[in-house]
Specification:
The structure holds 2 protein chains of 2 kinds. Chain A is mainly α. Helices cover 73% and strands 1% of the residues of chain A. In chain A, α3 crosses α6 and α4 packs antiparallel against α6. Chain B is built from 8 helices and 10 strands. In chain B, a hairpin with a 5-residue loop joins β2 and β3. The longest helix of chain B has 17 residues. Chain B starts with a strand and ends in a 6-residue tail after the last helix. Classes of the chains: A mainly alpha, B alpha/beta. β1 of chain A pairs antiparallel with β5 of chain B, so a sheet runs across the interface.
Chain lengths: 278, 255
């Protein structure tokens, strides 16, 4: 059970020891999912203890939100409700997951400062816990998606199954952002506040309540330069019965790859410092 | 065989807030035993451990002695792997269990059982190990049917009993204890100290940070006096306490 943790003098950049230590941390956390799954699950339970409807408040609030947005913006944009409501509903649910992963991810380390200073568990555990918690909450939205699909007769086919890899990709992307923003937020406490504002802005400039095709060509870049557009589309399209786009998938996967690489390097570089910043 | 080897380690904490750095510098310098100095780049840094080298062999019972801010807790956290030192090497063999704040990570809305499982997982047990130790934990906590109730219905003392029961159900090679291992009523205190004795007896190495001469003498054989993050005295525990007492009676000028 040897466990040398070697330290070094501060140098800019990442050395192989740091990479090894970060990878060990990640693998340890992944190999023992019991802890982060249990805490993540408790987080969800804690929120709904002693309430009668429990977690279905999440479902209800999302259903109300979808209905309200759908009715108002559908008529504003002159869209038929039968296609607009599923579009906006499924897009919104996908977006809520992305937004929660980012906003919550900022607090992954700072909110776990008690545990971090008391026990030497892998730091990745705290990130996986927030990701897991948000996946559980998101699963409650599945009821709304199911309802939309049935009520509006969305065609179900083999390509619908693409939602599963899309969701996995989304979770990995979200985990990477959680690592990145979690580390930055531990060091610079303004980051979470800044990110919350940015995420709100992104909601309006990402095609969620409007369609990318409806933008005038001079403004089309707003949608097409936005990585969230691709991640969200790969999740939304299969549930709307739209055929998959290879280009969108390629871009979505590249986004995840970039985020994972960046987050891993940041984690490797600053893993040893996180405890000091809390 | 358990073994702890620290070679020339340095730990310092950056202080990021504070526009009034010079004021903070003075207050901290006066109020604690730590050294506060502005780093060369203008950032304020508290040096908590200063070039410390220490070897603890299997079977040793070590007391860390020193006043607040001398670096005792930081040193325990370095051994636990929580703080990775800026310079120097930490080499350990054996499993480590820090027992600092027995109350951390308890969820007031979860039941006693849920908290036992949660804490067990935090301490590195698998789900199965937690289940295996559950009867022992139940028996020691002595809370009966309260274990199915939410933690917020517990009194302070009951909470402490539960936390203590779980935290001491582990069997580490290297046991790290900090100051107040608090527990509830007198009857429980006696059982608690017996359980602590057993835990210590099972561990290959004990490191205890404490102000209390009583606890130090009861558990430890070797005493280390720390001051400003430096190792000042290392020897038999009685000598260390005597050295520390003499030192406090006639403090050298600060510096």
């Amino acid at each position: 059970m040897g466990r040398p943790h070697t330290a070094r003098s501060r140098a800019l950049g990442v050395d192989p020891d740091m990479v090894r230590a970060a990878a060990t941390d990640l693998l340890k956390a992944l190999r023992h999912p019991g802890l982060w799954m249990a805490i993540g699950w408790l987080d969800v339970k804690q929120r709904y203890r002693r309430s009668v409807l429990g977690p279905f408040w999440i479902t209800l609030s999302v259903a109300a939100f979808v209905l309200g947005l759908g009715l108002v913006y559908g008529s504003l944009f002159g869209q038929p409700l039968s296609s607009y409501l599923p579009y906006v509903g499924i897009g919104l649910i996908g977006w809520m997951l992305i937004a929660a992963l980012i906003n919550d991810g900022c607090l992954a380390f700072t909110s776990a400062d008690g545990a971090i200073k008391q026990v030497a568990i892998p730091l990745s555990v705290h990130v996986f816990r927030t990701v897991w918690r948000n996946l559980i909450i998101s699963a409650h939205h599945g009821v709304v998606i199911l309802f939309l699909i049935v009520a509006f007769g969305v065609p179900i086919g083999a390509s619908t199954l693409l939602v599963i890899p899309a969701l996995i990709n989304l979770a990995i992307f979200g985990a990477a952002l959680s690592f990145g923003f979690g580390i930055l937020s531990a060091r610079f406490r303004d980051i979470p506040l800044m990110i919350t504002n940015l995420v709100t802005l992104m909601f309006f400039i990402t095609p969620i309540i409007w369609r990318a095709e409806d933008l005038p060509p001079t403004r089309a870049l707003v949608a097409y330069l936005n990585p969230f557009h691709y991640l969200l589309s790969t999740f939304r399209d299969p549930l709307l019965g739209s055929p998959p786009s290879l280009l969108y998938w390629a871009i979505a996967l590249i986004c995840t790859l970039v985020a994972v690489t960046g987050a891993f390097l940041l984690f490797a570089r600053f893993r040893a410092r996180i405890a000091y910043w809390l | 065989m358990s073994d702890v080897f620290l070679k020339d380690i340095c730990v310092s904490f950056p202080i990021y807030d504070g526009a009034n750095r010079s004021l903070k510098y003075r207050v901290l310098e006066a109020g604690t035993g730590g050294r506060v100095k502005p780093a060369s780049n203008g950032r304020v840094v508290i040096s908590a451990i200063d070039h410390l080298t220490l070897h603890i062999g299997h079977g040793e019972r070590v007391a860390l002695i020193g006043h607040n801010g001398a670096g005792k807790t930081t040193l325990l956290r370095v051994i636990a792997g929580i703080y990775i030192p800026q310079t120097g090497d930490v080499r350990l063999s054996g499993s480590v269990a820090p027992l600092f704040d027995t109350g951390f990570g308890m969820d007031p809305d979860a039941t006693g059982y849920e908290n036992i499982r949660l804490r067990g997982l935090y301490l590195g047990m698998t789900k199965r190990e937690v289940e295996a130790r559950l009867p022992d934990i139940e028996a020691f906590a002595g809370l009966g049917s309260f274990l199915s109730m939410p933690l917020r219905t517990y009194s302070e003392g009951m909470r402490a009993r539960l936390a203590f029961a779980v935290s001491t159900s582990i069997q580490p090679d290297i046991l790290l204890l900090d100051e107040q291992i608090a527990a509830g009523d007198a009857a429980f205190m006696e059982r608690a100290s017996r359980r602590l004795d057993e835990l210590v007896a099972r561990a290959g190495i004990l490191v205890l940070a404490s102000h209390s001469a009583e606890a130090v003498v009861r558990f430890c054989t070797r005493g280390i006096v720390m001051e400003h993050g430096k190792l000042m005295f290392d020897g038999p525990v009685q000598d260390a306490l005597a050295w520390y007492a003499a030192r406090r009676a006639a403090p050298e000028p600060a510096g």
